[in-house]
Design goal:
259 residues; 7-stranded parallel beta sheet; 6 helices
């Protein structure tokens, strides 16, 4: 199970649906401003894994690890509610790297065989999605949510239009770390979710409160669910989750439940 708040579903009746993280590999390459203080790079180094950079090996996992989602799927089916799975928290599913490509081939049938799991695929490389995923320009399975990271206006302009080409039932943005005010008005009609958050860890760059408020106002204008994850700071979530005294934990409406 994971403690990442936007993976945990809290139903109106008080029921809490656990969320999970699943990594096809550990390791990546930094590609933009939001990567500067990458928590995954720091964590991998802490455990002694040199897996960052274009030529570094990626850490892979065995059969027992790849069987875990099947157990999560059964548990979710028993509950009658889907669980969210963040894939990949320690990598980028759509990185152009030979080891990632090999492991990525195992992911697609796994997704199709676990319909009680919502697979949240978040990438900084949306330009690779259509060519690397088997569904391409066709309609995607309704348990795949596809997202891209948007830390500033430059990355929004580059990545969001490309994301909107994907025919997934949920297309979302992770504006974390949010480094400046970002205007999403051109694209919000095609999005189903926006996550906002500040950076955490040593050297964390502060988030402008007005930037978080601006995202909220835009989401309200287009009726897009808004999830405020954290202010950030030296320690994870040290700044709390309240924005102007309110908790924002909105999520997209489930496409299929209890069937």
């Amino acid at each position: 199970m994971t403690t990442i708040e936007w993976c945990i579903r809290r139903l109106p009746d008080g029921m809490v649906i656990p969320g999970y993280t699943f990594n096809i590999v550990w390791g990546c390459q930094k590609v933009s401003e939001g990567c500067k203080n990458c928590y995954a790079d720091t964590l991998a180094s802490r455990y002694g894994f040199d897996v960052w950079g274009p030529t570094a090996e990626r850490r892979t996992f065995g059969l027992v690890y790849w069987q875990r989602p099947y157990a999560w799927n059964k548990a979710a089916e028993r509950l009658g509610h889907r669980s969210n799975v963040f894939c990949s928290s320690m990598a980028d599913t759509f990185e152009d790297h030979p080891t990632v490509a090999e492991e990525r081939c195992k992911l697609w049938p796994l997704i199709e065989q676990t319909p009680w799991l919502n697979w949240l695929l978040l990438t900084k490389r949306p330009e690779n999605i259509l060519s690397m995923a088997p569904w391409g320009c066709s309609s995607w399975p309704d348990n795949v949510w596809i997202g891209t990271s948007v830390e500033n206006q430059r990355r929004a302009d580059e990545r969001v239009p490309v994301l909107l080409e994907v025919r997934a039932v949920v297309r979302f943005l992770s504006c974390e770390p949010l480094l400046e005010k970002v205007n999403l008005m051109h694209w919000l009609a095609g999005l189903q979710w926006v996550i906002c958050g500040g950076e955490s860890g040593p050297g964390a760059r502060p988030m402008d409160p007005n930037a978080a408020r601006y995202l909220l106002a835009q989401c309200r204008a287009f009726d897009v669910p808004y999830f405020f994850k954290q202010w950030g700071g030296l320690h994870h979530n040290s700044g709390g989750r309240l924005l102007d005294g309110q908790l924002y934990s909105e999520m997209p409406q489930m496409v299929r439940e209890g069937v």
